[in-house]
Amino acid sequence: MRGDLRAHEESLRLAAPELVGRLRELLGAKLVAYLGSVQETRAVRQWAAAEDPRTPSTDVLNRLRMAYRIATLLREKDPPGVVQAWFQGLNPRLDDVAPARLLREGGLEQVGPGVLAAARAFAAAG
């Protein structure tokens, strides 16, 4: 649980460009674009550029903070490829829905705790 708390605090302290940049390193630009509900990875690159005034909306930024928290938690035990696969794969703990889809399409207050619990269970089992 200690790593989870650290990941949570870090996700809140990071400025938006740094958060997006780190998340892009962990998950790849395409998955970050998907989570951010944008069509092109160019938007992700712009969000990560500190000098670029474009930033994600508050809703998207909160979703990305949750994704970063989860990715960081999973990354403690698994390589980035496994973390990416976890986000994209059908998850039996989430009624066989991919965590990335839930985070993108669901209300964060409704789906966030369940996705986080599934990530904790996966990290604990690994």
Q: Tags for this entry?
A:
126 residues, mainly alpha, 8 helices
Your description of this structure?
The chain is mostly helical and 126 residues long. The protein has one domain. Helix content is 72%, strand content 0%. It is built from eight helices and no strands. The protein has helices spanning 2-13, 16-27, 29-35, 41-48, 58-75, 80-88, 99-105, 108-125. Helix 2 crosses helix 3, helix 2 (16-27) crosses helix 5 (58-75) and helix 3 packs across helix 4 (41-48). The longest helix has 18 residues, at 58-75. It is globular and about 40 Å long. The protein starts with a helix and ends with a helix. This is Antitoxin Xre/MbcA/ParS-like toxin-binding domain-containing protein. It comes from Georgenia soli.
Poorly predicted ranges:
none
Strand residue percentage: under 5%
Number of discrete domains: 1
Distance between the termini: 14 Å
Largest sheet: none
Number of strands: 0
> Rg, please?
13 Å
> Count the helices. How many?
8
Shape type:
globular
Structural class: mainly alpha
Topology as H/E string?
Answer: HHHHHHHH
Helix content: over 70%
Organism: Georgenia soli
Protein name: Antitoxin Xre/MbcA/ParS-like toxin-binding domain-containing protein
Topology:
Layout: H1 2-13, H2 16-27, H3 29-35, H4 41-48, H5 58-75, H6 80-88, H7 99-105, H8 108-125
Helix pairs in contact: 1-5, 2-3, 2-4, 2-5, 3-4, 5-8, 7-8
Protein name: Antitoxin Xre/MbcA/ParS-like toxin-binding domain-containing protein
